[in-house]
Amino acid sequence: MRETIQFSGVGAGLEPPTLTKVGELIAVSSVSGADPKSGALPADPGAQFSLAFANFARLLAAGGVDKASIGLVNVWIADRDARAHIDAAWLECFPQSPRPARRTNEAPLPEGCEVLLQAFGRDGASVAEVTVAGLQHRSPIPAAATLGSWCFSSVVGGERPADKSLSEHAPDQLAQTFANAESLVKAAGGSMDGMNHMWVYLADPQHNRAMLDTYLSHFTDDTSRPARKTVPSTLPQGLHVQMQFTADVSGAKRRNFDVPGVGHHDPIPLGSSVGSLLQSSGIHGMDPATATMITDDRARELRVALRNVRALVETTGGGLDSIASLTVLIRDLTHRHAGASLSHEMLGS
Predict the structure, then answer these.
(1) Which residues sit opposite 256 in a β-bridge?
(2) Domain 1-125 shares a fold with domain 127-138+148-252
(3) pLDDT range class, residue 37, cuts 50, 70, 90
């Protein structure tokens, strides 16, 4: 059964901050730096970051969730300059170790909005940090964090742990990135058999073939591979790839799920489950009756994509109440309200 808490009155046309619980899983989304009293977004970016993390803590408290039960925080920012404000607000919220993993994503945000927070946790669990020599971050975040058997990484790059050096060649960086991810999973007490989901960020989509080759070299069983979403991204100079992953280190067997007619060109599953975690690869507006992508009708494309989400969950034996979090990637930010309304209509609040 899904439980949801929302804060209203954020103003500025933003989605309300939401905390959702499904079983052990905690998902937090759309936490902005709006003033909780006026709903206004301060003009000062630093004030927005401070308020965003304060609002995040307030939402957790309202849901009866301890901050120690959060394993991953995604910080969405509009541009790279905003990174300068993250750590101060982060340390206000998490002044001491152990801290959750963290990933910063650059994407268009609503006008006037400098930051949105998204987070995942495990009810009743306590976060522990995962460290591997040479994979430390400059910011006060762990390379990865665990909540019981669940493992969430911060951003993982292709630096060589011995000296932090970086190959100029994309295939070498990709190989090192996957090797670094494997080192973190092993340090958490698991193996690549427990890898459940990967976000792969590529500076150049032309390197997708090399990324796929590396992925397949680590996951040779075509009936048991982690879900994956690859996203073209603006990365720091010299970086070809970054990754963020979720794993379960309990030793549970990974299961793959697919929906007939709704597949990928790459040999990846539509959904992957290890233990109690189910995560999906990208789910498109592909008509399962014809196995063709809908491109001429945006509303129909989204509606079909959401039906495919529902079909995937039902394939696993779950229902709509099993969905804790849905990340919708859109090309035009002006369509976000229509997308949110349709998601609520088809999948519930």
Answers:
(1) 272
(2) yes
(3) confident
Task: Give the global pTM.
Answer: 0.94
**pLDDT for the residue 330:** 80
Angle of helix 336-347 relative to helix 298-315, nearest 10 degrees? 40
Mean pLDDT of 151-179: 97
Of 71, 13, 105, 49, which Cα lies nearest the Cα of 327?
Answer: 105
Q: How far apart are CA 325 and CA 155, in angstroms?
A: 20
CA dihedral 254, 258, 263, 269 (to 10 degrees): 0
pLDDT band, very low/low/confident/very high, at 17 (cuts 50, 70, 90):
very high
In the CATH scheme, what is the code of domain 127-138+148-252? 3.30.1330.40
Q: Which two tokens stand for residue 321?
A: 């109440």
Superfamily for the 1-125 domain? RutC-like (3.30.1330.40)
- pLDDT for 349: 53
Q: Which amino acid is at 75?
A: V
Model confidence pLDDT, tens digit, residues 218-264: 999 999 999 999 999 999 999 999 999 999 999 999 999 999 999 88
pLDDT exceeds cutoff 90 at 213: yes
CA nearest to 90, candidates 61, 117, 112? 117
Beta strand 18-22 with 25-32: parallel, antiparallel or unpaired?
antiparallel
Provide the residue ranges of all domains of the chain, joining segments of one domain with +: 1-125, 127-138+148-252
How big is the CA angle at 182 (ends 179 and 188), to the nearest 5 degrees? 145
The H or E element spanning position 19 is: strand 18-22
Q: Which two tokens stand for residue 62?
A: 């309202």
Q: Which residues contact 96 (CB under 8 A, 6 or more apart)?
A: none
| Burial letters 233-262, b for 16+ CB under 10 A, else e | bebeeebbbbbbbbbbbbebebbbbbbeeb
For residue 180, the SS3 value is: helix
